[in-house]
Amino acid sequence: VFFRAQPAPARTVSTPYMYSDKDKLKLLQLMSGALQIDTISQDDPKQTDYSKLLDFHAYLRQQFPLVHQSAAISLTVVNQYSLLYEW
């Protein structure tokens, strides 16, 4: 998964966002779910289980629907299995 962000306008001021304990728990659950998908590639491409990469794609779509519906974020699939998000 690759992320490419456009440079922020010079006038943008960022303010730190404080996550609640509930938000932190949800983020941990989302990361845990992503890490449980066995997306290990092998030196020999014939030994790689590419269905796991597609499972990971589905997980991202299911868990982050607003990202995938946003007009501000574009998704490009590279070589069938790599994801490039741009905003």
Commentary on this structure:
- This protein has 87 residues and is α+β, with helices and mostly antiparallel strands.
- It contains three helices and three strands.
- A three-stranded mixed sheet has the order 1-3-2, with no helix packed on it.
- A hairpin with a 3-residue loop joins strand 2 and strand 3 (82-86).
- It is globular, with a radius of gyration of 16 Å.
- The two termini are 14 Å apart.
- The model has no long low-confidence stretch (mean pLDDT 87).
Largest sheet features: 3 strands, mixed
Low-confidence stretches: none
Q: Tell me what portion of residues adopts beta-strand conformation.
A: 5-15%
User: How many separate helices?
Assistant: 3
Radius of gyration in whole Å, from Cα? 16 Å
Query: Averaging pLDDT over every residue, what do you get?
Result: 87
Side by side, the strands of the main sheet go 1-3-2
The ordered H/E elements are EHHHEE
Tell me roughly what share of residues is in helical segments: 25-40%
Please count the beta strands (DSSP E, at least 2 residues each).
3
Termini separation: 14 Å
| Helix vs. strand class | alpha+beta
Q: Report the principal-axis shape.
A: globular
